[in-house]
Amino acid sequence: MEKSSKAEEGKMTKVKWGIIGVGDVTEVKSGPAFNKVENSEIVMVMRRNLNKAKDYAKRHGISAYTNNAEEILNNPEINAIYISTPPSSHAEYTIAAANAKKHVYVEKPMAVSFDQCQKMNEACKQNGVKLFVAYYRRELDYFKKVKELIDYGEIGDVKLVDIKFLTAPKKDDYNPENLPWRVNPKIAGAGYFYDLASHQFDFLDYLIGPIKSAKGNAANQLNLYSVEDTVTASFSTENNILGVGSWAFTLENMKEIDCTEIIGSKGKITFSFFNETPIRVHKRKTIEEINIPYPKHVQQQLINSVVNDILGYKQCVSTGSSALRTNRVLENILH
User: Fold this and answer.
1) Average pLDDT, stretch 31-54?
2) Does the predicted TM-score (pTM) go above 0.85?
3) The domain spanning residue 106 has which CATH number?
């Protein structure tokens, strides 16, 4: 039998994760998936509150926990880190993980600024590690179906995009003493637009190509918090598709509207970003409805892609480079 080469002997065969920040998003959406994906395992989790870290580890069958991120960064068994903290600390932890020679999977939005995103990409490049961002819609079957319909020309050549997300304020928005962190610009970068529209613009980048220019107007109409609560935008892609969008988190007595239209030369597709409504294909006088439910762990398919990329099998579609473009679009619209 021939001896394996040194390269083969040194090849990573399993991704062993450390998680920094085990809050709500990791309970169902992401956390359990790391142990369900083949060749993937959670080694240690971290939360600043040690009792909460211990409770999380116990409930999810994880043997090690800590309240000190350095223990994860310096753990020689860990070769990849999932950063699930608010955006204000994404850059700090990503750069620290890169310097520790560990691959990174970071929550979205990638960071609080385009400049921080650039620094994160550069740190990972310099240290020879990979950077992925949790824009999981790129791998969800519901959204992959939308892309399939577009790519196969079901509505002809795409010409226009119209995004609408209109909703009422959240209950906690009325509590000035305890506002959600997502409307604290020091933690979130901006407001709900920054948090939610990041998913939308990232998927559009994947669906119809990178956005080359974007501009917008933002207002604070209810003055419940210090950042924008209403945004309008116009944008164009590198392949000359034009788009508009409206976001309002102020409409107290109106039913939520979550609808995106992709308009082509032969019809249009409508779908939702945050609600499991049917995909509708409008062609001439017919409307076809396609129902595709979300999986229990919505990030599992993307995490599987991340693991396969780290192990050298297949390139992941959500990287630091693609997410960088999304942050640029958000900043152009708000500033």
Assistant:
1) 97
2) yes
3) 3.40.50.720
